[in-house]
Fold:
Amino acid sequence: MESFFNKYLNAVSHTETILYTGTVIAVKGLLIESRGPSSMVGEICTIKIPRREKTIMAEVMGLDGGIVKLMAYGDTSGIEVGAEVVASGHVLQVPVGKKLLGRVIDAAGNPYDNKGPLEVNEYYPVLASPPNPMTRKPINRRIVTGVRAIDSMLTCGKGQRLGIFAGSGVGKSTLLSMIARNTNADINVIGLIGERGREVMDFINRDLGEEGMKRSIVVVATSDTPSICRLRAAYVTTAIAEYFRDQGKDVMLMMDNMTRFAHAQREIGLSTGEPPAQRGYPPSVFDMIPKLLERTGTNDKGSITAFYAVLVDGDDMDEPITDKVRGTLDGHIVLTRTLAQQKHYPAIDVLKSISRLSRRVSGSVTLSAVAKIAKLVALYEDNREMIMAGVYQSGNSPEVDEAIAKHSAIEAFLTQEEDEHCTIDDTLAKLSELSGIEIPEDEYVENPAESRKTVAQLVKEHKKESVVDANSSASKSEMNDKLSAVGHAL
Structure:
């Protein structure tokens, strides 16, 4: 009986008994200005449109004296001067709970899939702070993505955050869908930010499928929605992932894509009067990116492993958004158009990509096998022109000869059909066979590097601190000699 009344008790507890109101005085493009109500930045307000007998949800984006600047979550048609604006007293909150699994919601947390209301009684704030860095659990367990090139050459840990960088049409969304279907994470939380309307159902039905949706939650803000929806959809996705992490789950968060998140904030920032900075992006964009990305990772309860797709404008890996995201994350996976044009899928350039935590979640022998394959790939690429032109003569270099001999096998290993699932056992077995280095069975487990000693422990064992002490003593002795020489001179 108590659970039956929970939703009603929750509704009452979130109801404001005192309403602060204001009136619309201007609509300037994306921006709605009102005189009042008394509110704070980020607060949700309701704009009443009596003539159409409807209301529009809006968010406070800025304050200028007594003028409140709002952005609407829907169509602004019908808003007129004098329309009443009512403050809610709280920021945007998203419904959370196990019954969200298998559902598709919008940027405001409303159902988007015509499956009825969300039967949840708990809410999480969309705007939140990252976990305290001193309470984060260490990342020492491997997560399986089911993508052979990633699980071998770019091994990821549970709680790691990586970016998938590529230009348009190179395979970012396809790679994310492969990870969503094949990962061993408990729950997938997927944010489709600024995607084409056609791609939403394609991703859900064609890429995820029925089995993938059973353990997934999809947040959608298509390209035709207002910029505030595209912006807040990223925060809603993160908040849902945080809820399940707080339940002790290992969550896989996938966001497609961060560039359109930045575009949305650029539109909002310029509308509210921010000055443009790098390539037209206002300073708030570069402030928001790390604050959003730092919310994922581990905390003291669970983990959020995050993959953020980044649409690289003009295939320029040094453009501002790409550079900012890459510098914030724990690794980057680069997809190149050259490989995609060669029908090499996924088009991962393993030489340009890096997982900064792979050494913490891979066994020592596995790392040796990965290093050998990477070296063979690099040797072939360095000598590609000579090999293709027939200039290189076999026998000149045993290492180059091996790179040529194994090139086809390495290409086959790094490519994978979209519907192919590869277990970690199969991946490591093929890596071992290809490299010629036998990987022991104890490195097939989830945490093969758990017993590996830290750098601090190795330094202590080798008594490197005695070297520091010796250097310090030598410096003091040299200083004393100099002082003594100066005293004699005087």
